[in-house]
Predict the 3D structure of the following.
Amino acid sequence: MNLPSIVIALILLIIVWLYLDLTFGRKKHISLFQKRETPILYGNFDIFPHGKELFADYFHELKMARSHIHILFYIVRDDQFSQQFFEILKAKAKEGIEVRLLVDRIGSHKVKKPAINDLRAAGVEFAFSNRIRLPFLFYSSQVRNHRKISIIDGKIGYLGGFNVGKEYIDEDPKLSPWRDYHLKITGESIPFLQQEFFIDWNEYSSENVAVEAYTPKQPKGKIAHQFVPTEAGFLEKKYLPFLQSAKKSIVIGTPYFIPSNKLINELITAAKRGIMITIVVPYITDHMLVQEASYRYLRSMLKAGAQVFQYRNGFYHAKSIIIDDQLCDIGTANFDKRSLFLNKEINCYFYDAAFVDRFKEVIHKDILDSKPLKLEDLNKPNLFRSLKEGVAGALSFFL
C-alpha cells in the first residue's frame, strides 16, 4: 500500500472513530442523566452585571465565611486576580473553615500542579471536574462543566456567567468592559445548590460526602424561582415550551447564538405569528468562528422580522431569556448547541413580575449600548466571511 492510500485510510479510520465515540458517548450520557429541578421556591436576589462589583461583594462574603465554602467554576485562570482568589481560599482554610474548590478540567487547564499543591497544603480540598475518560475520549473531552456555583455557610449562593480571571474584572483590553449577569442568592433554594455542587464533587473527587449535613432548611424569600440543572440535551426540551408559550414577546441575550434546528424553527414560527423577538449578541467575539456560526441563524431571524442588536460597549457574555415580561431565565447556559447538548449547565427561572421588571431595566441598558444588525449587513458579499461561515457551520455543534 502506498503512502497516499495509508494516509487516506488513517483519515477514514479517525473519522469513523470520532463518529462512534461521539454517538455512543452521547447515548451513555443521556442514559445516565436524571432530570432534576426544584419546585417553585422563594428567595431574595441581587443582580451583578459588572465583574468589579460582583467580586468585591463575593470576596467580602468569602472572607466572612464561618462554616464552609463550596465553589464550582468553569474557568479559573493563572493570573494575578486568580492568585488573589486563591489567597482568600487558603486563608479561610487555615482558619479552620472547610473549603472545597471544583473546577473544569479543560476550562481551568491553566491551574497547574504548584498552585494545586499550595491550595492543598493550606487545607483547601481541590478537584478537577469532567476529566477526559475512557472509553469515550473525544466525547468526554467535549462535555464541559460550565456551571458556576458558590455556596457560603449554606446561607448565601452565587450563580451566573462570570468566571475567575482578569478579563472578568475589565483587565483585558480587547474584551473590556466585560458585560455579564451573576446572581447573589439567599432563601429556601440554597440547599438545592448545595446538592448540585455535591453531585459533581462526589463524582470527581475522592470523597463521597453526605449532602444532608450541609442542607439546613433556609427561610423563604420574596421572589418565586426555580433552579434547573441540565445536560445531555435536556435544556432544549426545557426551552421549547417556554418559546411556544410566548404571547407577546421574547428577548434573548447570549454571547453565542447557535440554536438547534428545533429552537430556530420555533423562534421563526413565533415571529410569524406576531411575537416580537429581540436578540442581543456581542459585536466583538472572544472565540474563533462563533460569530460566523451565528450568522446563518441571525439571517433567518431578521428575515422573519426579529430585531437583532450587537452590543458595542465591550464584550457581551450575558445569558438570559425573557418571555412576555412574566418569565425570566438567567444562568450559565448560552443559546448555543454546546450548552444545549454537551455542557453541564444550571439556570434560574423567575416567575415574579416585579423581578422581571427589575431585570428588564438591566437588559434595556444593554440594548441602548448596542446597534441594530441589519440583514443587508450580513448579505454584503464577503468571500473570506463566507468561507469562515462554511467552516463554522460544519463545526457549530462544538463551538
The two ends are 37 Å apart (CA to CA). The longest helix spans residues 3-32. The mean pLDDT is 94.
